[in-house]
Amino acid sequence: MSISMALFSPPISSSLRNPYLSPKNSLSLLSVTRASSDNGASTTDSAAVSATTVEIPKPASVTVEEVPSKSPAESSSDETDLPTTETGIKFEDAKWVNGTWDLKQFEKDGKTDWDSIIVAEAKRRKWLEDNPETTTNAEPVLFDTSIIPWWAWMKRYHLPEAELLNGRAAMIGFFMAYFVDSLTGVGLVDQMGNFFCKTLLFVAVAGVLFIRKNEDLDKLKGLIEETTLYDKQWQAAWKEPESSSSTVSSKK
Amino acid sequence: MATITLKSFTGLRQSSPDQTNFISHVPSSLSLTQRRTSLRVTAARSSPNLANRNLRVAVIGGGPAGGAAAETLAQGGIETILIERKMDNCKPCGGAIPLCMVGEFNLPLDIIDRRVTKMKMISPSNIAVDIGRTLKEHEYIGMVRREVLDQYLRERAEKSGATVINGLFLKMDLPENWDAPYVLHYTEYDGKTGATGQKKTMEVDAVIGADGANSRVAKSIGAGDYDYAIAFQERIRIPDDKMTYYEDLAEMYVGDDVSPDFYGWVFPKCDHVAVGTGTVTHKGDIKKFQLATRNRAKDKILGGKIIRVEAHPIPEHPRPRRLSKRVALVGDAAGYVTKCSGEGIYFAAKSGRMCAEAIVEGSQNGKKMIDESDLRKYLEKWDKTYLPTYRVLDVLQKVFYRSNPAREAFVEMCSDEYVQKMTFDSYLYKRVAPGNPLEDLKLAVNTIGSVFRANALRREIEKLNV
């Protein structure tokens, strides 16, 4: 397909070689090629494009460059002639069909390999974060992560983390029990009946759950402040005592 | 017999010429002579009647807040003056009004340029979700031109008896004692464009500050500052065939590229679309965000021509002091813009009306002087009615605009019909509708699921980065 396009491009570009030199004429080049292509909106496009040069030069250059890059099928000859900002870098993958992952291509031993779908989607999102793409109505993205069953997510993310946290809790629990026993002589069973020990247990479990990295401590403090900030801003109008209105507030 | 009693009553009363509501005035007038000597009168009920005149209230700013306030004041029998600096001000604004505003403010249907019945939410990874399937036939989001709406509300205020002055409010002298008037300094243009205008002063009893995000009234009373977002918008005229796609559809783009704490939008207007974005924390990068928004919508606004570029500040939370003695702030000046959606027109108009109603009630249709406690009633009513809405939207913003995984989860959840129904119900009618508890539980589970999946994918992405 690209070879045939290359074959077609020389005759067109040779006729337009001179106009290509000046940017102003490159717009007329644009309107000529747009008119020649089978695009129903070509007349309005060219009118709009020629109008942009009069209006605001800077944004016009953006809109002009947008036009050729987004019709790769019909006028890839434009892409070769005009300097475009991006030649429509799009996310493409053999398994990404019609805006969603084709589950049949992910089969392994006759069953769908959910893990590889998760990894593929992560790769797609990473690609889009680095190269944000335009949305088109022609190829809508329809993928919904909920088609991957819940146990696949559990197995891949929840279970390893749960194992880690339970391990931490077990180690802390063992040593705290030993420590308390050696200090006070109270055995494990008797410790469980004591209120203070139960509180300590609760603190240990909460600590293991919420503080997983060193930064989490500061993050939690920030979180508490953040949740109450909006309310404080609203109540500020009521905080003022009535007597302050009698004092001269501020003749700024 | 009746006439004899009438004469004796008028003899007792000190000042007011009004004889129609003398019954309600009798108790206060009897205590008038005693109360005159006390320094502070706290309750309006015991305020003195105004001698030979009605209460004079100035409304600074002629947007939706000012127009609604002036109309309600004038209808309540109060001498109202509305000061607006630019009568044909074409404000940079999304221009979306909820359905309830049309009913509550009796807006004529021809003010609405477009009825948006479909919305598309687009996630950072371009997953697009259509919302609006649950809307009924008569439900829509109205898109208006601000200059048309503002002018209409001002004209209605004028018809009700308010005096509309084309002028720029400069500053205000605060009164020395409790019954001295406020002295407003303003420049009157009187319709002459380009002229420097005349400096004038005016004495009024109370002021409603409806002059927007950079309110001078707020500065005069030391209301304090607020955090604000910058919203940047470009109006783009696109070819007709592309315009048919936006006939009744608006789009919302979320993503780190579009905005770190807000969203980018494409809203259809009368004959063009408005493409814009906003941010609170990264105001310096707004142009970059705008380019990214245009890039995301590139295909759909292809061949478009930018006809106008505009930007405006959006308050993020109310000012610390929303009123002081007999000056109250309403609308953007007070900071009544919701989080998450950035909606302000309806709340501006409603707060203007509520404040005016409080003044009308406290002054008993303009017969008495009002006090801060009357205005506080407006604050009370406002907070009681709308604080839950503001809180919910704040939580939504905090949870779902945090990061790309959160936004992905947000968009995923919006595909759920129950969410759509609840969202539109609360947006269109401004009531927190009681949902079905079973559906609420399902929604909670789905939310947790979506957030978990999005965060799991984020961890996967991080693993790929390494």
Automatic annotation (TrEMBL), chain A:
Alphabetical list of Gene3D superfamilies matching this protein: Chlorophyll a/b binding protein domain (1.10.3460.10)
Keyword Lipid biosynthesis attached: no
Topology relative to the membrane: Multi-pass membrane protein
Keywords: Membrane, Transmembrane, Transmembrane helix
A GO CC term attached to the entry: membrane
Ranges annotated as biased composition (Low complexity): 41-54
Predominant location: membrane
Region of interest called Disordered, as start-end residue ranges on this chain: 34-85
Subcellular location as annotated: Membrane
Protein name: Lil3 protein
Organism expressing this protein natively: Brassica carinata (Ethiopian mustard)
Lineage of the species this protein comes from: Eukaryota, Viridiplantae, Streptophyta, Embryophyta, Tracheophyta
UniProtKB/TrEMBL annotation, chain B:
Pfam families xrefs: FAD_binding_3 (PF01494)
EC top class, as a word: oxidoreductase
Domain of life: Eukaryota
Gene Ontology biological process terms in this record: chlorophyll biosynthetic process; photosynthesis
GO MF annotation: an example: geranylgeranyl diphosphate reductase activity
Role of this protein: Catalyzes the reduction of geranylgeranyl diphosphate to phytyl diphosphate, providing phytol for both tocopherol and chlorophyll synthesis.
Name of the featured protein: Geranylgeranyl diphosphate reductase, chloroplastic
Organism of derivation: Brassica carinata
Higher taxonomy: Eukaryota, Viridiplantae, Streptophyta, Embryophyta, Tracheophyta
